[in-house]
């Protein structure tokens, strides 16, 4: 139930702000320590402040952003890991060796300048609406980075949990096993178990608060038993002061004083890497917040809001921020309704009231909480894919293995080399694998035309010739992008057709969605090579294709082929090729004058006398080119036998102002037989393609033939049944050929 009175809203906002602060402050402290850890143990106090200042600045930007939401900004695990790694890899060593920087304040200024510039870039990304490009991020690259981040955060906290010096690495562990403090390890384990188990029995208690309470209580219980020396240090007293913007002045010193110039390049490269990862984390966090909190967050706005928060925090000595999901949910569920709750959250941190509590928290408890955060950060998708590959349950084992290889490459490079190099190599490998996957073939299907024919119905002699010589026609259907990475396959196939039996090659590019100059040149070269050996190459599906049509024109393909070799669809190209093949076969040309009656399939097996009777029930009709024989939906019961010319069957496309050709009937074929049999309305429109002459049998004449000459009528019906069966079988062969 929503609060209605001012007092209820104020109480809800106060409780929401307090809850958010209690939930976020421990992680702010831990992430701040992690970010500045590479600078040395003496920077722990500064790290605590860096995490808290980031929360304050992030909260202020979120509260004054003009939105009615409850989103809490504070340091994020993956971004903090990147800051720590960049400090260790790019800044610390170079600052000491090349620039000779020893001043602690200037060392921190280098870190915060990198954070400031990353925030500026992120703000620019948001203003320029680059959030739309997040969907193009390869998932394995981000997963590899998350894996590396979780592993390094985990490894960095292991020495603290074991009671060893924080700067000690795992490689040094075997030589210092005797220095491990069992009670410190036990306290860390107790914290982790509490975080895991207590929320199961008390869902209202967040896991990090449960671990913090139990771990701290356990520390002081053991301290009471005199085990203080075996438990590791506390965070200790913090010299709290309100944030001061003095680092803005330090930034100016670094950018203008000559002695700091060697650090500009590593700071800039680090900022670029940090801005990319922070932006991606922002966009993913916004998407997650929409799902979990029910808020509407616009990605680009979150980019520049969190970018501004990072810039502000850096000037005051803080690190980058992002959406803290647990604190935001705590704020919302405790009654927070808007910016007032966020301002309460900021005010509580600024008051310093939580500092005495922070100072008495054991370092090992914070380290255990960081280990839990590292485990949560580990990419779940990677674990799921790895489990499927190991158990043999992956449907696409090769593809999953390739993605896992990218994850491993990015993670390993991020750990042992350089973060920027890891991300760059991840993108390069992903793009290379993508090109490899799509470059296998652009040929969707290839078939010869002894079984598959155009929609033009021909007389028996022509159909028999096409069945025997149709292999001279090859249709190659292309799909996807035809570019430098995929066109080699097409070029090799066209070259192979030079020595094949095919004389007419049809390239159907209807399904091609992209073409570059390399792909167009392969088509042009293939055409030239085929023409040299007397063969023809034609294109279908190339009309009105926008950029593809433009590329074919610009590269000279249209000019070389000419309009006679360009067709709207594969059927028109196939009909053209069939006509050219039939022109080379004797006895398949069109008959001069009317088609002989005895050669019609409908009259097969009839004697001369029976053919004479047939002529008495047929009437001769003519139509000019373009005239409609009948319209779709017309009543009709006539059979048409084409003596001269050709006619096409067309149907209207529902919802569109156009028709589509189904089939063309040529000299020696017949149509309308279904209406003669069932006397239903015409199912399509038929118009004359040329001057048309038909022998027409009406239903009344068919009835007269059946009554007076039943044997002839039976022969006619048998032949019509055979014709229908032949058409059905041909359709089945075509479907089988195309599907196969």
Write the layout of secondary structure elements.
Elements: H1 6-36, H2 44-63, E1 73-74, H3 77-97, H4 104-127, H5 139-161, H6 182-201, H7 207-224, H8 247-256, H9 264-293, H10 299-315, E2 322-323, H11 325-333, H12 339-351, H13 355-359, H14 363-377, H15 380-391, H16 397-416, H17 419-438, E3 443-448, E4 456-457, H18 460-469, E5 473-482, H19 487-497, E6 504-515, H20 517-532, E7 536-540, H21 547-554, H22 557-561, E8 566-567, H23 570-583, H24 608-616, E9 619-623, E10 628-630, E11 639-644, E12 647-652, E13 659-665, E14 670-671, H25 673-678, E15 685-688, E16 692-697, H26 699-708, H27 710-739
Parallel strand pairs: 4-13, 5-6, 6-7, 7-8
Antiparallel strand pairs: 1-2, 3-5, 9-16, 10-15, 11-14, 11-16, 12-13, 12-15
Number of discrete helical segments = 27
Q: Tell how many strands the DSSP assignment holds.
A: 16
For the biggest β-sheet, the strand order reads 3-5-6-7-8
- Assembly annotation: single chain
Main sheet, how many strands, which sense, barrel? 5 strands, mixed
Q: Low-confidence runs (pLDDT<50, min 5 residues)?
A: none
The shape is: elongated
Helix/sheet category: alpha/beta
Average pLDDT works out at 82
Distance between the termini: 62 Å
Q: What's the domain count?
A: 4
Strand content range: 5-15%
Portion in helices: 55-70%
Write up what this structure looks like.
This protein is an alpha/beta fold and 740 residues long. The protein folds into 4 domains: 6-181 and 232-400, no CATH class; 182-231, no CATH class; 443-583, STAS domain (Transcription Regulator spoIIAA, 2-Layer Sandwich), CATH 3.30.750.24; 597-739, Jelly Rolls. 58% of the residues lie in helices and 11% in strands.
